[in-house]
Specification:
By secondary structure, the protein is an all-alpha fold. It contains nine helices and two strands. A two-stranded antiparallel sheet has the order 1-2.
Length: about 260
């Protein structure tokens, strides 16, 4: 009976550990604005994005009949500095909303850095930060097309997922500890960590093998996926080592004291 219980717990513990790592990755990496901003700055994302956006803008407008010289006022705005200012501010606003730091999802617009001839006169954009719903209304877009209210709950959901899966993982480990006889090795616990380590290491390779065909996305995602891959590789190795250590550890044997 104990043998089958251990097998079931091991099979449940492996995905439980993966869920803990997955939710922790979202919480401490993807939901951390510094993770994105540092990654973009260290990997020349703003510079590459600026060049590709300029090329894309020129190609699209030339196809529409515009001359290259007419596009200078537009391409001069798409600089690495302005892009960094625009993207970093909106990363802060978006993640602050998701993490519960702000009640509204604000959009940052570098109004002071955009030439007046490029700003739509009928829209009346005269402030740098505006709620997304209000901005969509100004452009006659239905605000309900984006589930803004649901986005606010995503951060809370991830927090609950992380805490819940961590508690369940701890409980499964305690059960396996209790099911191990005194003096026996922690084979079931060690096996759980070893198998989880292999799964994590295998998953880390998937992040680096993702094929991205869109040029704009190719400027942003590869370095981000590489950072996540490095984290998963490190955690995978640590999990594997911990599992191997448990395979050789024995549960202490507690002897009852002799009665006089």
């Amino acid at each position: 009976m104990k043998f089958f219980a251990k097998i079931i717990l091991v099979l449940i513990l492996i995905p439980s550990i993966i869920i803990v790592l997955f939710s922790a990755t979202i919480k401490f990496q993807l939901f951390d604005p510094n993770f994105w901003k540092d990654d973009f700055k260290n990997n020349n994302v703003y510079f590459n994005l600026s060049n590709d956006l300029k090329t894309y803008t020129e190609d699209q407008n030339i196809k529409g009949g515009a001359k290259t010289g007419d596009l200078k006022v537009i391409t001069d705005v798409i600089t690495p500095t302005i892009l960094e200012d625009f993207i970093s501010h909106n990363i802060d606003n978006s993640l602050a909303f998701i993490n519960g730091g702000k009640k509204e999802l604000l959009v940052y617009l570098p109004v002071g850095k955009i030439p007046k001839e490029l700003a739509p006169k009928s829209v009346g954009l005269n402030t740098e930060e505006i709620p997304l719903a209000a901005l969509m209304t100004k452009f006659n877009v239905d605000a309900n097309t984006i589930p803004i209210s649901q986005i606010a709950y995503f951060g809370t959901f991830v927090n609950y997922l992380l805490v819940g899966s961590a508690i369940l993982t701890a409980m499964f480990l305690i059960f396996l500890f209790l099911l191990t006889e005194n003096g026996d090795r922690f084979i079931s616990i060690g096996l759980s960590f070893v198998l989880s380590g292999f799964v994590i290491l295998s998953s880390s390779k998937i992040f680096n093998s993702v094929q991205i065909t869109n040029k704009i996305a190719a400027d942003i995602l590869p370095s981000v996926l590489m950072q996540i891959s490095k984290t998963w590789s490190l955690i995978g190795v640590i999990t594997l080592v911990v599992g191997i250590i448990f395979l050789f550890l024995k549960k202490p044997s507690f002897k009852k004291p002799n009665k006089l």
